Amino acid sequence: MADEAPKSAFELAMERLRKKDADAGIVEHPLTDAQRQAIAEVRRIHEARVAERRIMHDSEVLAIADPAERAERDGELRRDLDRFEREREEKVRKIRLDPGSE
Predict the structure, then answer these.
(1) pTM of the entire structure?
(2) For 44-66, what is each residue's pLDDT tens digit?
């Protein structure tokens, strides 16, 4: 035990979280290669959707002079980006829960 280096705060926190999960009956399963690929694909699609939506937003607001209309368009962008993020997180969650998912 004397040869062991002191643990970092991160390592100690992770140990506590693992113990808490184990006490709650939560079992950790490593991701399969198929799950990793599926999650990466979901994230690539999300990034593309965000980029496309931002480009569309930028082209829409170039011609808008009215501040109220501009604010409305900015709000639409925020709502769309939030929706995209929720959809991405839901898809990733489903992939993590189902080892046979693609």
Answers:
(1) 0.70
(2) 999 999 999 999 999 999 989 99
